[in-house]
# Entry
Amino acid sequence: MDKFEEMMQKMQKMSAAERKAMLDSVKPKCTCPECPTYNDCMKGKEELLFCATGKTGCSPAKKACICPTCPVTPMMGLKNMHYCIRGSEQELRKM
Ligand code: SF4
Ligand code: SF4
# Structure
């Protein structure tokens, strides 16, 4: 089991409130606002943490993705990128 799978197992044991608190604590670390793909619509809606929440409805033009250099990537054991367009890590791993 890799790090992301362990994190998912831990989160499954949490209550909805605990899960929300955990995501809220990680949100300020999300570097999406510095990414060239992050558009004004996403900014206006204050959308972040697409690796956990999945695709945006803001139809961004696919440019670079800076997820690989985000501190959340090693913290959560993420392996993918372009989550705002492709879906969450969990969706991309078909878990
Ligand atoms: S990995 Fe990407 S989507 Fe997830 S928190 Fe970091 S920048 Fe945001
Ligand atoms: S998920 Fe990746 S591509 Fe999308 S805004 Fe965040 S860093 Fe950029």
